[in-house]
Amino acid sequence: LLIGASTGCSDINEHEYALVGLNSNHAFTVLLAKSLDVGEGRFLLLRDPHGTTNFSEDSITPKIRKHLSSIRVEMPNFSGIFWITWSSFLRFFESITISTYVSNHFDIREQAQFTESPTELLPAYYFTLSKTSLITVSLIYHRHHRKGNSQHTQSFVLCNVEEETSDVGTKEVILESHRGTLTYWNGSLRPGAYVIIPFSVSLWKTRNSKKDERTRNYTLVIHSSIPVDGGFLHEPPTFLADCLIAATLKYCNKPLISNSSVVYTTPRRFAANLIVVENQCMYEYLTFNMIMTNADNIYHSRHANGTIDCVPPRHRQLICILEWGHLRGEVAHMSYATSQRISRTWHNASPTVAISQADLHSPRPF
């Protein structure tokens, strides 16, 4: 079994955590529990996976520490390992998680941040597989307080990457979306190059919004049955747009097809709803209007009740992302109306799409 323990007690402030050398919002591994005839009698051996904890407490005297060190010699020589008394553990740690550990699986954990706007460079995790592998992907949000309710939706898209052309989603597209602090997927992936991009419109800021104290930090966890070679790179938002367009085309059950256009939407089972429009004309532009007729507890990626877009010939455009943002027990609902027409001239979008800044909502050629 793998036992994890997390700080983040709402009744203890950051200063109190700092005094004993603990991170106030962090996860640790429980390596060992011992009952001894010294001091308080019960002790835990913990490990900080980042090796940055400098925990100390007065009740572990030099004599007790020497006794505990003799036990510590038997443990692997990891950094970030420390002893803590049972009473201190109960005071500073808010929760424990017990799970089965698959010893022959490889574990990757990388931290990054969700973006705040549709024009900000975003972290994309690239990795390669040398052969078919069982993969588990977990996206874990860092809350300030673990007992606090989360109103945000978080998602990630996983696509294959063609190494010669850099095209994405040609063979594999996975979209996972969840309202809360954990988004999860597991399955089998064939040999090749892949990219995972986490995103959350719920955490985007607006000019009129009050100061947002929510953290944007997350941890991406990957378990694989074979070694994985990977790392984060920062990509323009249009790269995410290409992945999301591929995902929308895959998951759309009933595209709305007309003589000149196709409208794709993701099913409502996703906590993030994507709307993509395709202009099939060879020469004419497609003006696409979308109006939210009824919406409550919804986050809109363009912060607007209505949008007007001009899609060039043979282009697709991610019109918007709509995310559920309600607390459990509250009602969230939405409905919208659309219209379209063909024109021979181009016009600006409303709200403006910052195409020169690789805006997520920029039209993409196909």
Automatic annotation (TrEMBL):
SUPFAM superfamilies: Cysteine proteinases (SSF54001). GO terms for biological process: proteolysis. One of its GO terms (cellular component) is cytoplasm. GO terms for molecular function: calcium-dependent cysteine-type endopeptidase activity. It comes from the Eukaryota. InterPro entries: Calpain_cysteine_protease (IPR022684), Papain-like_cys_pep_sf (IPR038765), Peptidase_C2_calpain_cat (IPR001300). Residues 21-102 form the Calpain catalytic domain. Gene3D superfamilies: Cysteine proteinases (3.90.70.10). Belongs to the peptidase C2 family. PANTHER family: CALPAIN, CALPAIN-15. This is Calpain catalytic domain-containing protein. The lineage of its organism: Eukaryota, Metazoa, Spiralia, Gnathifera, Rotifera.
